[in-house]
Amino acid sequence: MRITFRGRLHDARTATAVGRWLGLALTVCFVTGLVSHVLQEPPGWLQGRLPTRPVWGYQLTQGVHVVSGIAAIPLLLVKLWCVYPRLFVWPPVRSVRHALERLSIAVLLSAALLEIFLGLVNISQWYVWPFSFRRVHWALAWVLFGSLLLHLAVKYPQIAESWRRKRKTDDSAEDADETDRRSLMLGVGAAVGTVTLVTAGQSFAPLRPFTLLAPRRPDIGSQGLPVNRTARAARITAEQLSGWRLEVRGPRPYELTLPQLRDLPQSECRLPIACVEGWSAWADWSGVRLSDLLDLADAPPGALVRVESLQRSGAFRSMVMGPNYARDPLTLLALRLNGQTLNPDHGFPARIIAPNRPGVWQTKWVTRIEVRG
Ligand SMILES: Nc1nc2c(c(=O)[nH]1)N[C@H]1C(S)=C(S)[C@@H](COP(=O)(O)O)O[C@H]1N2
Ligand SMILES: [Mo]
What we know:
The protein contains eleven helices and ten strands. With 373 residues, the chain is α+β, with helices and mostly antiparallel strands. It is elongated.
């Protein structure tokens, strides 16, 4: 059996030209994904050493992560279109190099498609599978990046050739497809630009008027902030809220009622909530410095702190923070949001807000703070 494709632009040069941009998008996505993973689950030696400045660091890297992932979709589709005739070559395997090349493409393609699909499902908050999104997304990222490196290594001769030809000035005259290729690249550029423009507004405020496809509008939500998990979805009951007390466990444990908490010195800060899903929004917060609460409990300066919410189940019902966050003057047990008492969906009576931290760890409905050794 022999399949021949006569379509233009199904050639190595076009594939390399698209591949360059796809490789860039995937690399940016991979690196910002690493940042997100480390900030969410720091390895022991980094716990307590992560930077808390700039306060918008995670907002930026996670925004770029989601934007570059979305930009990779049209690039991946065009790349597939350029190379699909080669997926049906006969004989299927010609040499060891050829076998490696095909293997790397098969793995690269399936990992990229699955990874982008999972990411899209996640930013639409559609958690339909029993597995942990983060673990699978993380493991697949390494498979994807590994196969990308293998692919680049195997394809190195073609890539080098393409760069060499690019440098020759009389090259375009000899290549009849050059104009077509340029049009294709312009088209791809326009597609990437469009999907970026209509989705990036969820992370980058100046682009907000163009937001069409992003699942979240950061400026829509009660008290000027979107709500990811409502009090009802977290099964927070009215009884839990009315009988609320803050319990602080440490060398000198104590409990506070809400009026007592309001009587402590209050601080203010302006910080963003930056969700792993890419949306982010700034707000004015006020409440008690976590550091003050820890001092009242005689907590040692380097202690890790565990924060627990009223929520009975769910991955984000509790978290651990290192002293870098816990002792930062901007980290608050917030009681107010944009000048108003937090409403139940925003974590009434008290929630954590810390600088340069993934949204998932900005715990709402805080009821217990525990100083750990
Ligand atoms: N207790 C608790 N706190 C939580 C969550 C949660 O599910 N339970 N969701 C987190 C997530 S994923 C984000 S992005 C922020 C969103 O805050 P908002 O819903 O108040 O805007 O809250 C975080 N705090
Ligand atoms: Mo989130």
